[in-house]
Amino acid sequence: MISFTTKISRTTFSSKRVRIPDGPSLQDFIETDNPNDAMERYRIQMKLEANAKRLRLPPWLKRTIPSMDNTNFTHLKKQVKKLKLATVCEEARCPNIEECWSGSKDVPSTATIMLMGDTCTRGCNNTSRTQPRSM
């Protein structure tokens, strides 16, 4: 019997992802005898300050908002519009569209194209997109 095996190389981007800086990890809560000890280390002020409209996020949870001036992002957006393609990212109004479309030196730009135009083929009713015709 002859068998053929092929090795499929996989590219994982988990090592390339940006981690939330200085925040508590699951390990912090597991290693301590009392989980409250880990929470005490990351205690923040959880009351509304004077003249404040809302509670502030802890510094380890804040992220910088990327600028929309990114050349990769604008180039991909222009290409998608020029080719009259519908993307899942735009149709679902994804808040992370800039991360995927801009890419970086190590991570390629990605966009998920909808093959049936703006008609979503998923069975959920969570979006405001055009539903597919019944068969």
Please tell me what the overall shape is.
elongated
Order of helices and strands: HHHEHHE
Query: What structural class do you assign from the helix and strand content?
Result: mainly alpha
Number of helices: 5
Termini separation comes to 45 Å
How many strand units?
2
Q: What is the total number of structural domains?
A: 2
- Characterize the biggest β-sheet: 2 strands, antiparallel
Strand order of the biggest β-sheet: 1-2
Mean pLDDT value: 69
Helical content stands at 25-40%
Radius of gyration over C-alpha positions, nearest whole angstrom: 22 Å
Strand content: under 5%
**Oligomer designation:** single chain
Low-pLDDT windows of residues: none
What does this entry show, briefly?
The chain is mostly helical and 135 residues long. It has 5 helices and 2 strands. It folds into 2 domains: 36 residues, no CATH class; 70 residues, no CATH class.
What attributes characterize this protein structure?
about 140 residues; mainly alpha; 2 domains; two-stranded antiparallel ribbon; 5 helices; 2 strands; about 5% strand; elongated
Describe the protein in words:
The protein is an all-alpha fold and 135 residues long. The protein folds into two domains: 26-61, no CATH class; 66-135, no CATH class. Helix content is 26%, strand content 3%. It has helices spanning 26-31, 35-41, 71-82, 88-91, 97-102; strands spanning 86-87, 113-114. It has a two-stranded antiparallel ribbon. The longest helix has 12 residues, at 71-82. The model has no long low-confidence stretch (mean pLDDT 69). GO terms for molecular function: 4 iron, 4 sulfur cluster binding; lipoate synthase activity. Its main location: mitochondrion. Its cofactor is [4Fe-4S] cluster.
